[in-house]
Amino acid sequence: xxxxxxxxxxxxxxxxPANPAExxxxxxxxxxxxxxxxxxxxxxxxxxxxxxxxxxxxxxIVEFEQGGAQRAAYGQRLLPQLGQALSAEFGRGFDATxxxxxxxxxxxxxxxxxxxxxxxxxxxxxxxxVDSPEARQWYVQEAVAQNWSTRALERQIGSLYYERLLxxxxxxxxxxxxxxxxxxxxxxxxxxxxxxxxxxxxGLPNTGRLLEATLETALMDKxxxxxxxxxxxxxxxxxxxxxxxxxxxxxxxxxxYNYLIKCFVLIDLKTGPLTHQDVGQMDMYVRMYDxxxxxxxxNPTVGILLCGSKDKSVVRYSVxxxxxxxxxxxxxxxxxxxxxxxxxxxxxxxxxxxxxxxxDEGENA
Length: 365
Hints:
Layout (H helix, E strand, L loop, with lengths): L19 H46 L3 H4 L5 H13 L5 H13 L12 H7 L5 H13 L4 H9 L2 H7 L3 H12 L13 H7 L11 H16 L4 E11 L4 E10 L4 E8 L5 H17 L9 E7 L4 E6 L5 H6 L8 H27 L1
Parallel strand pairs: 3-4
Antiparallel strand pairs: 1-2, 2-3, 4-5
Helix pairs in contact: 1-4, 3-4, 5-7, 8-9, 11-14
């Protein structure tokens, strides 16, 4: 006989989140903040040590130069000699060019406490471009108060923010425009890992390679192999080779020397659409390399700009004015044509994309 008064059994339901990841959200948020804060502390500690070290190096150099006629006799040979010795022991972050920046840093900020701890060495490298002491000090104060990244500071100096603000009758409008220009410059949490100045200070190897995106790296590997296998006189010189002016450093993706036509060949790879700025930059590389690295007996440097965008590959040669005839009559006989390079670049990109697609399918299987 059935007991009608007995209450029906209820199924026991487990109270689990509909999406397991939602339950981890608070923990992940806490861990992300912890990691980000720790990285920021490491970055700040390195920044402070780097800036203080370079200030003291600059001070020692200036004091040595002022030490009498005997020391003054070194003259222009001082920094190259110091740079050769120090860069051999501590890396290229201490070559003559960077020592010159350190000397300039001390001369611009002779009082150590005037160098703000909140700013990195890259900030100060940018500030050394500002000739006016008043403008330079204003940029220091604003960079600290507004927490400007190095990209933000470079943008403000390049747009003459201080000068425009000083002359404008509508300062609010100038300030609003400057803030709008900075809104798109949010810095990646890992941006500091890619700062070549910091990596060189720390003595980390292969700093130039860290500047390349994954696709660029793979394309450069294949392009380097392609040129070496052509059998037309290409000798590898360097990847991510730095060339420097008084105020700025530049990195060339690939440098070869061709012993058949006796000239350096510079290669710059862009994975996005080709722009006028890219063309101008390569022309500048060729001009700088001729001035700084070309030796006696070398023919004029030639540049190759490669644009490996997804939609269309573009190849453009770059030679200085006056070298066009030499390029047409001699270089063309040895260097691969634009079409050969374009086909190779397109083939390599497609192969890499297929390889990446297969890897993704294997991980998701």
